[in-house]
Structure formats: structure tokens, C-alpha cells
Design goal:
Elements: H1 5-25, H2 61-64, H3 83-86, H4 96-99, H5 118-130, H6 140-151, H7 154-165, E1 173-177, E2 180-182, E3 184-187, E4 190-193, E5 199-201, E6 207-210, H8 213-217, E7 225-229, H9 233-241, H10 251-254, H11 272-284, H12 292-299, H13 304-316
Parallel strand pairs: 1-7
Antiparallel strand pairs: 2-5, 3-4, 6-7
């Protein structure tokens, strides 16, 4: 007995939706929401002056950890930082340039801000403040943003948003399809490779690690990352993003090259780990706000594999 084509497609859609719901019920994947282990301890500062390539600056480990002083390794890369970006305002508002780095590239644990419009940055900060924007799993970075959003003034936020929006985005991620990846550990909310060369199957994961862990720890704004993704992910993501169904076609809102439009942020070359969390949070309902009504019907039938593929593709694009 042969099923009519329409019935077969409908049945397949139901199975896909059921599978996607089951994955959400299993909980957010640990690789996308890394949490420091219970016995985690930061490396003590031995007073050594740290350096990064192509910079004459030097900072101690204590200095690069200071939440009220953003290390500026490459001052010629950006306009002068506003006070709120460079130093914040004690005791409640941390320097934006500490977590997001001096000119906004961020890291897998938070958002890259360069290339986003000032209006979008202000809107998202407001959604943190009102509780509309949360995560599907507890995250220290989100808790800090919520705390900051409640204390920052409109003027401070406007200055920071205008500053980051003025900076031209650049690619700092190499997307590599692989069957096996370095074994990793959680190091202060991001994944870092273990010592040695031992590898393990990638499975249903993205493994995003700094090319040089110590440069990233030093908050070097030029730090680069390798994002290992399952084999075939980039092409699968390209196909999904170009889906003829307008409810799924990413370029409808985010632009044909995913570099953003007047109504939606650019997605190209942003951390795939971070972007996966956003899709998952929209799907789980943890992230609400102005864009959730548009995003929710798009992501609700996406599987984990689909979301991995989409962000692998978007991360591979040039901004």
C-alpha cells in the first residue's frame, strides 16, 4: 500500500516535530551551556606580565580579570572607548569591554556586538532588564547582563551601543568539519582543549575552542577560534537556510548573505555555540521579546542536528 504524497509529507512533519519536542524535553545540551565544575578554581596570579601578539601592552592576570577595566591590547583597532565600555561604573555596572572585549568580538560564552545596530543592542538590554530574555539553563554571563541592565542609565547604554555599532565586524572563527575532535574541559564558562593530543568522536555537538587559550583568557580582542562541527553540517545548513518555505528562509529577515537588515541582526561569522543557544532558547521559550513571535514558529520543528547545521553554516560566512 502506498501513502499519498501529501499524507506522507504530513506524517513526516509530525514525526519531525515530535522528535524536536523530545529533544527539548531532554534538556539543553551541556556542550552549548558549559558550566564550571563544582571544584573549579581559577589559576592564581603569579604576577607575570602577560602579552599577546602584535601588541606592546602588558597586563597581569589580576588586571585582565578586573571587571571595571577592559584590557585594550590593540587601541588602533577601534575608536576611543566610552567610559562605560572601558571602565564601567562601580559598583553595579561592569565595563562592557571586559566580557565583550575592547571592540566587541565577545566569545562563545557571550555575544559579539560589533556589526549590530545600536537600536538592537538597546532593545536586547531592555529585554534582559524586563526578564524577557533568559536562557534554557543557568548561565553566569546572563545573570551578569541582567544585573547590569537594571543599573545602566539610558545615556550610558546609548553611548555603548553607538560605539559597538560603529565597529566593522570581522571573522574570527574557522569552521572545521570533523569526525573526531580534541577532548575538552570547561574552563571558566568556555571549552578548552585538554593537554595532549587525545581525540573523541564529535557526535551531535559543536566543539568551539580558542586557537590560543591564554590569549583568549587575556581578553585579546584579536583572539581566534576553531569551531568543529559534524561532517556535512555546513552544506546541510546552507540548504536549510535557503528553504523555499518563507517560514524557514533565514534570508527573508536576516538578508540573503545573513549580514542583517533593518529588522534583524546579522548572523554571519558569529560564534556557532552562542548562536545555537539562541535558537534553542527561542525554541524552549526561555527567550521571549520583540523577535520571539517571528522566531518561535521557525525553530519549533528544528531538531538539534538542524540547529547545529544552521549555525555551522552561518558561522562559515564572511561578515
Amino acid at each position: 500500500m502506498r501513502f499519498p504524497t501529501a499524507l506522507w509529507a504530513f506524517s513526516l512533519a509530525l514525526l519531525t516535530a515530535a522528535g524536536a519536542r523530545a529533544q527539548i524535553q531532554e534538556g539543553p545540551p551541556a556542550w552549548a551551556y558549559p558550566v564550571n565544575p563544582p571544584n573549579f578554581q581559577r589559576t592564581p596570579d603569579d604576577g607575570t606580565i602577560r602579552h599577546v601578539p602584535d601588541s606592546t601592552a602588558g597586563f597581569t592576570l589580576t588586571q585582565v580579570r578586573d571587571l571595571f577595566a577592559a584590557p585594550d591590547w590593540h587601541p588602533d583597532d577601534h575608536p576611543p572607548m566610552p567610559e562605560i565600555v572601558a571602565k564601567g561604573r562601580k559598583p553595579e555596572v561592569f565595563a562592557c569591554g571586559v566580557c565583550h572585549r575592547a571592540d566587541g568580538p565577545g566569545g562563545p560564552e557571550n555575544a559579539s556586538l560589533f556589526g549590530l545596530s545600536a537600536e538592537y543592542i538597546i532593545q536586547q538590554t531592555a529585554e534582559f532588564k524586563t526578564g524577557l530574555r533568559k536562557n534554557s539553563a543557568p548561565r553566569v554571563a546572563t545573570d551578569l547582563m541582567i544585573k547590569l541592565s537594571k543599573a545602566v542609565t539610558d545615556q550610558e547604554l546609548g553611548e555603548a551601543a553607538a560605539y559597538f555599532a560603529s565597529i566593522t565586524p570581522r571573522s574570527n572563527i574557522a569552521v572545521v568539519e570533523a569526525e573526531a575532535v580534541p577532548k575538552t574541559q570547561v574552563r571558566d564558562l568556555f571549552l578548552a582543549p585538554l593537554d595532549g593530543t587525545e581525540k573523541e568522536p564529535i557526535g551531535q555537538r559543536i566543539i568551539e575552542i580558542p586557537e590560543n587559550v591564554e590569549h583568549f583568557v587575556s581578553r585579546d580582542s584579536r583572539a581566534r577560534f576553531i569551531a568543529y562541527v559534524p561532517v556535512g553540517s555546513v552544506q546541510k545548513g546552507r540548504t536549510l537556510a535557503a528553504n523555499s518555505d518563507p517560514r524557514v528562509q533565514c534570508g527573508t529577515c536576516h538578508g540573503a548573505d545573513l549580514n542583517g537588515t533593518a529588522i534583524a541582526p546579522g548572523l554571519a561569522s558569529r560564534s556557532p555555540t552562542y548562536m545555537f543557544r539562541q535558537l534553542y532558547d527561542f525554541k524552549s521559550g526561555a527567550r521571549k521579546g520583540a523577535n520571539s513571535e517571528l522566531m518561535k514558529p521557525i525553530v519549533e520543528n528544528l531538531s538539534i542536528d538542524d540547529m547545529i547545521a544552521l549555525v555551522a553554516f552561518s558561522a562559515s560566512l564572511k561578515p
